[in-house]
From TrEMBL:
SUPFAM superfamilies: Carbamate kinase-like, PUA domain-like
Name of the protein: Glutamate 5-kinase
Keyword Nuclease: no
Region (Disordered): 440-488
PANTHER family: GLUTAMATE 5-KINASE
HAMAP family: ProB
Predominant cellular place of this UniProt entry's protein: cytoplasm
Amino acid sequence: MKAPRPLGIVIKLGTSSIIDAVSHEPLIATLSLIVETAVRLRKEGHRVVIVSSGAIGVGLRRMDVEHRPKHLAQLQALAAIGQCRLIGLWDSLFSHLRQPIAQILLTRNDIADANDQRTQYLRAQNTFAELFDMGVIPIVNENDTLAVEEIRFGDNDTLSAITAAMIHADLLFLMTDVDCLYTKNPRQHPDAEPIEVVEDINALEADISTPGSALGTGGMSTKIVAARLATSAGVTTVITRSSTPGNLVQILAHIQASQGLQLQKSSSFASLPLMAAAAAVPPPPATSSASSSTAALPKPPLHTRFLPWAEPVRDRSFWILHGLSPHGTIFIDQGAYQALVEHAGLLPVGVADVQGHFSDNDAVRLVVVDRNTHTPEGSTPAVATPGAVASGTEVGRALVKYSAVDVSRIKGHRSREIRDILGHASSEYVAQREHISLFRGKGSRPASPSLRDRSPSQRAATSTSAVSTESPLHKVEALTLNSEEASS
């Protein structure tokens, strides 16, 4: 019988999960249980990553500061103070079980090296792979000492999703101070019902009004963003309570039985707190149907599970869509969009307008618009097709071959005219097809928050604009249409 394959498991811990909100003391009991769970999973051959917040919280305790400051420089200084103590705490706890760890500090720019063809993203992947081969558990955190906008948003949820996609993880656990998502706020509505399985995030009706803690910057809405990103990359995402990390094992066993994930069984899990050998979920009988087997499974600890996409967005497409920060927008006509859907590149004749300041090899948004009645000389107005999308819809991202200034000069013209207009022609395409990733027109796309995301009040003030491109919950789903992945 073929041995079950190891799983990639990412465990994300928010500040409120590891730091007391009042005393700012580390929650040693919770951290110890998390360490024990992670080590046992690693010894079973699984690739385990911990995404840990808490640097600022630890810094507050070290400097005896009662309240989280508002000034960015103070936050960054506290993060610098707390980060070394936080990783020291993790190392101390893991060393009791003789488990080596590694610290990985990231910002969005660390994986957004578009000019060098995502070299840094690939190097990060290789670093993770080498650490796994060495039996090391990486501890990942946002580099709050250098980050700017990220420090004011619950970006470690997003970071955990990007990390899970980067290592091709099977499961992402978003550990928080509640058991799961509810239809209403359970603290205010006794009739609130738990949401245990989410098949379509677009149809999700849950109360996500709970803000982040006094120390943290996230909230339930940022976990929905993370779930969108991770599930689009084929990662099953789970929201569950952080104070009982031993529940991870029961949830894993339940997912194994209900979804068919090949989690290695081990009697060593029986010694975990809140666990017993009888709690292990037996595999469903071979003669039973999937539905009847799932119905007969013992109830796992309360959690919300987001099911992954059947056709996930991987590697280069995911990197273009979510690893990069777009520097501008190219508006294309319906005909150009249909050509992209059919795997053609973006020609200048299909470009209607340009917005922003970008250079060649920068990432840009692609937005479909209807052609104006006045088109540039030599251009051909686009003809609407049955598959046309609504004007103003962002349909994808691309790495461009020309700067914003050059694209604005050649827009609407034929490729053979590029050299006459610019004096040079590095490509017949504004963007080649292998450098373009598209979203699905139906459903909801998982949009990673941009480095330039505005504050909530600013987003509300601009929510009526023609093209909503920076809202973390902007809805359009991703479609993998790139030649690199098609060949694989």
